[in-house]
Amino acid sequence: MPIDEFRAKARAWLEANAKPYDEADEYHFSLEESKRFQKALWDAGLAGITWPKEYGGQGLGAAEQVAFNQEAADFALPTGPFVIGLGMPAPTIMELGTEEMKKRHLPKMVSGEEIWCQLFSEPSGGSDVASLRTTAKRTENGWVINGQKVWTTGAQFSDFGAIIARTDPEAPKHQGITMFVVDMHHPGVTVRPLKVATGDSPFNEVFFDDVEVPADAVIGEVNRGWQASVIMLRNERVTIGASGRSRASVLSFETLADLAGERGLTEDPSVRRTLAELYAKENSTRAFGRLLHERATSGIPIGAAGSAAKLAGAELHLWTAEAVQEVFGPLYASGDPELVGVVKGALGAPGNATAGGTNEIQRNIIAERVLGLPKDPGVDRNLPFNQIRFGN
Fold it and tell me: Fewest CB within 10 A of the end CB: N or C in the chain?
């Protein structure tokens, strides 16, 4: 199909099945609405555009993906529950999974039948992911997982997760880790919501008590889970960095400029200057994210550029939170019902500097892998994990 014809097809389908971004609230789609939409998107040949056909994809090229992304930018798509699964575990399984694993899960992920989460962070680990203490011990039929994960987005409605666990405590901490597919409906899995400053619960803590996984649940190789993790983290940063900020966001330039104009605030030159700066920052960040996504879709390695995009997006959210206070001043805390969402968005902005790897971690990656600066010595890097001393 010629690219212009594909673009017209995508536009026509979106106009018939999705709402323009200025007529929809992207934060209030139900899970069932999201599942129905993802299935309809896949049925229409507009999901998994560049995925191989044998794994549920459309087998098309990067040009078609770019065309769809450009057309979809005008719409608020209820695809949020699938962002992590399709952007992080799916490409990792595509690269490292067995043929059976790919055919078992990938078609169901892209068609909306399965929702996935990523299970990396732990309470005692902070940004040092490799210091994880969740264990997986061999059994006659596979493995048994015990431990705790935290800050897991979407765990409450996920069917499966990609989890990393320690499988060899006598190896150095980066060498004794394995990645598994875990069934989130297993009776030994407990998901508890975590409430953040906005009052919402976008994250969860997840407990694993004698959770059995089969031997063929390993993603990649046993004790090479750190290598698999690096691949998934790379995909995560591309996903977060390339997603940018939807124009339907409560913190987008379009939303804030409209709200400020309706209240007569744009008569103030300083407000106009702040909004103009927001427009420039937002669009440059969005353009960089799209460029990375197009490169990744085309099979071009982006390396540490994913960290740069993720950092840029987090910094944009932090800057916007301050801009909101400058623009709206006393109205910020006035209880104005139309500003409630803006206030919540600003309160939640610092979370973007932590989720997906802190800003400090991203700067370290950029410093080491882009600027060539010396690597952190990591005094415990070569010690057996069971000989490392922890504070608790």
Answer: C
Same domain, 293 and 198: no
Question: CB of 186 within 8 A of CB of 160?
Answer: no
- Sequence-ordered list of residues with C-beta below 8 angstroms from that of 85, at least 6 positions apart, any chain: 109, 114, 115, 116, 117, 158
Mean pLDDT by 10 residues, the chain (392 residues): 92 93 61 95 96 96 86 87 94 96 98 97 83 95 96 95 97 95 98 87 94 97 95 75 57 88 92 94 86 72 77 89 87 77 83 78 85 80 78 56
For residue 309 the two structure tokens come to 């995009």
Residues 88 and 29 both lie in one domain: yes
Domain that holds residue 134: 116-223
Q: Give residue 22's pLDDT.
A: 62
Q: What is the DSSP letter of 375?
A: P
Amino acid at 347: L
- For the entire predicted model, the pTM comes to 0.84
Residue identified by tokens 């919501």 is 193
**Helix, strand, coil % in the chain, rounded to nearest 5:** 50, 15, 35
* DSSP label of 157: G
The CA–CA distances, whole Å, from 348 to 26, 197, 267, 306, 352 equal 16, 7, 28, 22, 8
Question: Catalytic amino acids?
Answer: 236
- What's the domain count of the chain? 3
pLDDT of residue 212: 97
**Phi, psi dihedral angles at 268 (to 5 degrees):** -85, 120
CATH of the domain at 197: 2.40.110.10
